[in-house]
Design brief:
Length: 736
């Protein structure tokens, strides 16, 4: 197998584009080799003290005790001083994948909140992710930040993970392609994007010490492949290592993850920054860590004088320091931070940016059930809207990724408690009320609202209306996992009562991940709107009234029960006390999670292996029109097929091509996808170039595709597959 490689951050690898993934607008090409050479030369000019300037930094937020905001810092996630003598700019860092984080309103400014990562991934459109990344990157630049801590791409191994909302999907191809597009978008603003959290950061319970066990091959074929594709095609200037342990080592000190996989096997030339409070000691430098972030949150500043002293006596550390500086400088020069410095006070077109958020939300909404009640008629006479703070806004996930506009949240709901992070632990709602948007869409309708706290009162209103729309929210946050997949606060009972009162009951879910739906067969329609972001209200109304024909598809499996999961009980859930900081109580940091149970068969792959039927499968989504897929042809790594709009209105479909068996064994893997828009009656031929890593196993240090017959099928989703087309493949082996 001839391996064409591209020096994209040094990541060599087959650059075959998976089927139909239209390359989003290209960010400026990065001349990496030139940046590396310049970085090496400048790093050599550094004096003793200068050598540990770029290797550590603070979290410039006054609520971290003892923090003084340095000159040139912007209140946000991170600040790394520059070296003016050498023309090296400071790094001003902000979170995250959904926009410029709000940090409690500290800067008295606001930003545009994209919908959640899941909502973005449900578009299955790299172009949508590119434009979202370009928008939030432009706001970061305008606010004076030159590093956006975006690119959250951890696969959903457990649907209860509190940060599922922030991430993208359960599949490495979908996740890798989409995160790459988002990173290209962010970096098109001449700033650095991260990709995070490297790697296998699959739960928030005990996040700083949960120790993941997984065979190298399984990791390479799943979580690591998502990062590899994301790095290859996104070229992020920095990789953020994760809090958790892998094979007993902290990820931020893991020689296997950072040196062997990322820097040697993939040839990555950028720098590894730690997560905040994720550095175990100075030895992490030898493990491959290049920069200690948010150093106040660690037990000590390891990468300053301690590192300098080590370098003075140990050549391994001295060599590392040079490489650390060279890597940070490579990212700075590749992004052009020195040539095109950022400074606060830039202009932001919030109206235009809101349109990007709204379009993303519209394209990510997934229609899960429709007995014909949708789309609603704009001539509807009476509509009862119930619950979900729909009169105020749409729910947002909490933690470092939280974004709000300058007016702040439309509503908040504190969880109380006395932990240091209690102030952060509150539900909040973006200022975009679905109720107002529904009223605007159906001006002649009598629209009532009840918040749903009193079921009988809400039922009364539902009885009086033609249609009842129940908004159900499932808030999630960084630092905590969900105890199960039920809707909280008695919402399941509310929905069941409303459905019993009105046969035209529609449920709009605003969830941070998969949820159970015990009332599913009692309601007429279900729409998954996720965390719909700054313009969630109008986006939801647009789908409800048919101005938008929903084209979203699930990027994650909705299980029918927790018993279907590789780990029905979340590891640590029965003894780790939920706490946002993630720190262990003394002597209680031995938490283990065995990912070898499923290995690389994450999500739909696991369901296929176990022959399980999901509540709603990966790739599922309905439309107000209908589509057919036909004429699948596969020859080697190239495939093509045709999608036809067989209905009466324009709509989007997502072509999904799956490997379904290989050399005589069942094996399901997504090998290509493409979202297309078709007028009624129109058809389009789409082509696929399959990335061979998706057909291979990782064995003995390389990829192995066994000889034999490979079966491929088109899918409406991971469970609804068409005829199998068989292709003979010869054995192929190659290195990364
Ligand atoms: C957080 C998150 C990380 C974020 C960082 C800075 O704990 O894990 O995603 O970028 O700290 O806020």
């Amino acid at each position: 197998m001839k391996v064409r490689s591209r020096l994209a951050w040094g990541v060599a690898g087959l650059m075959a584009l998976p089927f139909g993934t239209a390359q989003a607008e290209q960010a400026p090409a990065i001349d990496l080799a030139k940046s590396v050479a310049r970085a090496d030369a400048v790093a050599k000019q550094m004096s003793g003290d200068e050598k540990t300037v770029l290797t550590h930094g603070i979290m410039p937020l006054p609520f971290v005790p003892g923090t003084v905001l340095p000159e040139g810092s912007v209140p946000g996630a991170g600040f790394i001083p520059g070296i003016p003598r050498l023309g090296i700019p400071a790094l001003t860092e902000t979170d995250a994948s959904l926009g410029v984080s709000w940090v409690g309103g500290l800067r008295k400014d606001g930003a545009t909140a994209l919908p959640s990562g899941l909502a973005q991934a449900a578009t299955w459109s790299p172009d949508v992710l590119y434009h979202g990344g370009a928008m939030i990157g432009s706001e970061a630049r305008a606010k004076g930040f030159n590093v956006l801590l975006a690119g959250g791409v951890n696969l959903m191994r457990d649907p209860r993970n509190g940060r599922t909302f922030e991430y993208l999907a359960e599949d490495p191809l979908l996740s890798g392609e989409l995160v790459a597009a988002a990173i290209r978008g962010v970096q098109s603003n001449g700033i650095i994007s991260t990709i995070k959290h490297f790697a296998l950061n699959g739960q928030e319970t005990g996040r700083k010490y949960v120790d993941v066990k997984i065979a190298e091959g399984a990791a390479r074929e799943s979580d690591l492949l998502a990062f590899q594709i994301g790095i290859e095609k996104g070229q992020p200037g920095s990789v953020m290592c994760a809090y958790n342990r892998v094979h007993g080592e902290q990820a931020c000190a893991s020689d296997w993850l950072l040196n062997k996989v990322l820097k040697q096997s993939w040839g990555y030339k950028g720098f590894v920054m730690s997560d905040w409070g994720a550095v175990p000691g100075v030895e992490a430098a030898l493990g491959g860590l290049d920069q200690q972030s948010g150093e106040q949150l660690d037990k000590a500043v390891f990468f300053g004088d301690v590192l300098k002293a080590k370098a003075a006596s140990d050549p391994a550390y001295a060599a590392r320091i040079h490489d650390m500086n060279r890597r940070v400088l490579t990212a700075i020069y590749a992004a052009g931070l020195d040539r095109n410095p950022t400074k606060p006070g830039g202009k932001i077109d919030f109206a235009a940016n809101a349109q990007v958020a709204e379009e993303t939300a519209k394209q990510g909404i997934v229609l899960l059930k429709n007995n014909g009640v949708l789309p609603l008629a704009k001539t509807a006479k009476s509509i009862a809207v119930i619950g979900g703070y729909a009169d105020s806004g749409v729910v947002a996930g909490s933690g470092s990724s939280l974004v709000h506009d300058e007016k702040g949240p439309a509503a908040t709901r504190s969880l109380g408690g006395d932990s240091p992070f209690s102030a952060l632990m509150q539900q909040s709602y973006h200022r975009s009320a679905p109720l107002a948007a529904i009223k605007a869409a159906a001006p002649a309708a009598a629209v009532t609202f009840r918040d749903g706290r009193y079921i009988a009162d809400a039922v009364e209103k539902a009885k009086q209306a033609e249609v009842a729309i129940v908004f159900a929210t499932e808030w999630r946050t960084e630092g905590l996992d969900q105890p199960d997949l039920s809707l909280p606060d008695g919402q399941d009972a509310l929905i069941a009562a409303i459905a019993a009162a009105n046969p035209n009951t529609i449920v709009v879910l605003e969830t941070g991940g998969p949820v159970a739906m015990p009332w599913l067969d009692k309601v007429a329609g279900v729409v998954e709107a996720w965390y719909a972001g700054a313009r969630g209200g109008p986006a939801i109304a647009s789908v409800l009234f048919g101005d938008t024909n929903p084209g979203g598809r699930l990027p994650v499996t909705f299980p029918a029960s927790l018993g279907q999961l590789p780990r029905p009980k979340l590891d640590g859930a029965d003894w780790v006390e939920p706490n946002f900081s993630g720190d262990a109580e003394p002597g209680k940091d031995q938490l283990h999670s065995d990912y070898d149970i499923e290995g690389s068969d994450v999500g739909y792959r696991w369901f296929a292996r176990k022959g399980q039927k999901a509540l709603f499968p990966f790739g599922y989504g309905l439309s107000y029109t209908s589509f057919s897929a036909s004429e699948l042809k596969v020859s080697g790594l190239n495939a093509s097929f045709t999608i036809t709009n067989t209905g009466k209105i324009k709509g989007d479909d997502v072509g999904q091509l799956y490997l379904v068996n290989r050399a005589g064994e069942a094996k399901q893997r997504l090998v290509g996808f493409k979202r297309i828009t078709l007028e009624p009656g129109a058809k389009q031929k789409v082509t696929v170039t399959i990335d061979p890593r998706l057909l291979a196993d990782w064995k003995d240090g390389g990829w192995v595709m066994p000889a034999g017959e490979y079966g491929f099928a088109l899918g409406k989703n991971a469970e609804d597959l068409g005829a199998v087309v068989k292709v003979k493949m010869s054995r192929k082996i190659w290195k990364d």
